[in-house]
Amino acid sequence: MFPPQEDGVSIGNPSFSQTNGNFIVVDRIDFNSSSDEIWAINLFEGNSSLVESNGSSVGFPKYSTDDSRLVFQKVDDQGVTNLRQILLNNDKITPAGASQAYVSGGQLPSWYAIGNRPTSVEENDSEPISNNFILSQNYPNPFNPTTKIEFSIPKATFVKLKIYDALGREITTLVNENLSNGNYKVNFDATDLSSGIYFYRLDAGKFSQNRKMLLLK
């Protein structure tokens, strides 16, 4: 894929495309200059393309579900790690423009779809706190492209809320943190997902529950 590199240069963090095995994206890390470049490769045709120079950050780039975009991490001037996304041309390896900010404070992307992230985790004080763990049905449902997921936890605990596709593949993590007892509401944006059935799963202490939702575009 790449010719032999000079001393101090490493090709790493490979990630295959989602629609087929022809494309791969990697970090080209130059330890001599403490710099990183993101490269995409067409394994079938044997050609490659520089997607973006990533400064001193290591990107860990990933393809989106339809391979139309890449997401990668980059450390800003304040030392905060953020996620950026970049649109690709139809050849799946050349950039269609410069990257844009995607998620502030995000890092180490490991996901299947661009655009799937919560805008916030809101505490809902308008309802009394239940004595039981509750995972409510999302609303609206069916939805396009956003929906809300509400849950209640009767005591402080570590909470995970994840989205899965119909084959059980993890799409994204909406919540992954310690929360105090209360009622919570999370926005889910499925802008770049295809129509179909998806599942969301809440794990809170020993409590675990799945629910089904339908995306219609």
What does this entry look like structurally?
- This protein is mainly β and 217 residues long.
- It has 2 domains: 9-103; 121-215, Sandwich (Immunoglobulin-like), CATH 2.60.40.1930.
- Helix content is 0%, strand content 50%.
- The protein has no helices and 16 strands.
- The protein has strands at residues 9-16, 23-30, 35-42, 47-53, 62-63, 69-75, 81-87, 100-103, 121-123, 134-135, 146-153, 157-165, 170-179, 182-189, 196-204, 207-215.
- The strands form 4 sheets. Strands 1-2-3-4 form a 4-stranded antiparallel β-sheet, with no helix packed on it.
- The model is unreliable at 111-119 (pLDDT under 50).
Characteristic key phrases:
217 residues; mainly beta; four-stranded antiparallel β-sheet; 50% strand; elongated
Q: What is the number of helices? A: 0
Report the sheet-strand fraction. Answer: over 45%
Unreliable runs: 111-119
Quaternary state of this entry equals single chain
Order of helices and strands: EEEEEEEEEEEEEEEE
Specify Rg, calculated over alpha carbons. 20 Å
Largest sheet: 4 strands, antiparallel
Q: What separation lies between the terminal Cα atoms? A: 38 Å
Query: How many E strands?
Result: 16
User: What's the rounded overall pLDDT mean?
Assistant: 84
Helix content: under 10%
Total domains: 2
Quickly give the structural class.
mainly beta
Widest sheet: strand order?
1-2-3-4
* Shape type: elongated
